[in-house]
């Protein structure tokens, strides 16, 4: 489970409680990459998770994730706060998965301009995500990209997530070579077949990233 929780536009803590990952296969090897293998032949190999895990952030810092910003931990999980211009705290997995299932229980952060996100992203910019806008209290957006090709930004879909800033919901991404399924509280809200993908279908090893930022901040 993962909890995202915020208070104000520029002081919104994002709370992560726990996360569960179930893998179909191990990997071997917000939109950025340290080394894109489509542009360089010298990228280092990616570390594989290679197992199913559950992380409870209420137990404190996890050795499965690296953090930017200054996370704090308590019995509810980890809190990532946007306190000033330029803040975009993120937890990033130290490993990659090649297909698998990610389940997160969370509350999204409120606040005008505040965006909370859960992103699966590869080094060559394949991406699958959930995003919450701080002024949208009843919905969440699902999205995907392949090789960084955003097109006309026509791949997003909106889904009902009642009172998502105050009510715990479990959000799932189930990613296989044939299909991506997005679920809320165990109910499928979107399913994308690979052959129906608008542009390249995501199919390279991905890290798991959780973050929060101010959408109107020119630093982000």
From TrEMBL:
<dbReference type="InterPro" id="IPR050546">
    <property type="entry name" value="Glycosyl_Hydrlase_16"/>
</dbReference>
<dbReference type="GO" id="GO:0005975">
    <property type="term" value="P:carbohydrate metabolic process"/>
</dbReference>
<dbReference type="GO" id="GO:0031505">
    <property type="term" value="P:fungal-type cell wall organization"/>
</dbReference>
<dbReference type="GO" id="GO:0004553">
    <property type="term" value="F:hydrolase activity, hydrolyzing O-glycosyl compounds"/>
</dbReference>
<feature type="signal peptide">
    <location>
        <begin position="1"/>
        <end position="29"/>
    </location>
</feature>
<dbReference type="GO" id="GO:0009277">
    <property type="term" value="C:fungal-type cell wall"/>
</dbReference>
<dbReference type="Pfam" id="PF00722">
    <property type="entry name" value="Glyco_hydro_16"/>
</dbReference>
<keyword id="KW-0732">Signal</keyword>
<protein>
    <recommendedName>
        <fullName>GH16 domain-containing protein</fullName>
    </recommendedName>
</protein>
<dbReference type="GO" id="GO:0016757">
    <property type="term" value="F:glycosyltransferase activity"/>
</dbReference>
<dbReference type="InterPro" id="IPR000757">
    <property type="entry name" value="Beta-glucanase-like"/>
</dbReference>
<dbReference type="InterPro" id="IPR013320">
    <property type="entry name" value="ConA-like_dom_sf"/>
</dbReference>
<feature type="domain" description="GH16">
    <location>
        <begin position="37"/>
        <end position="220"/>
    </location>
</feature>
């Amino acid at each position: 489970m993962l909890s995202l929780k915020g208070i104000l536009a520029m002081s919104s803590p994002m709370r992560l409680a726990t996360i569960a990952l179930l893998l179909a296969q191990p990997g071997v090897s917000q939109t950025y990459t340290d080394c894109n293998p489509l542009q360089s032949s010298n990228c280092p190999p990616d570390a594989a998770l290679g197992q199913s895990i559950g992380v409870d952030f209420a137990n404190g810092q996890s050795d499965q994730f690296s953090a930017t910003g200054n996370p704090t931990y308590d019995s509810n999980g980890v809190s990532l706060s946007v306190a000033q211009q330029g803040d975009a705290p993120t937890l990033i997995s130290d490993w990659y998965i090649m297909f698998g299932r990610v389940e997160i229980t969370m509350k999204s952060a409120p606040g005008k301009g505040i965006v909370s996100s859960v992103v699966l992203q590869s080094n060559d910019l394949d991406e699958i995500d959930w995003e919450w806008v701080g002024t949208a209290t009843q919905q969440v957006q699902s999205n995907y990209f392949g090789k960084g090709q955003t097109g006309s930004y026509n791949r997003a879909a909106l889904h009902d997530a009642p009172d998502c800033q105050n009510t715990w919901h479990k959000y799932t991404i189930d990613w296989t070579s044939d299909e991506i399924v997005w679920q809320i509280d165990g109910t499928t809200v979107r399913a994308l077949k690979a052959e129906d993908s608008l542009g390249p279908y995501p199919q390279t090893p991905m890290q798991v990233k959780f973050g929060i930022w101010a959408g109107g901040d020119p630093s982000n």
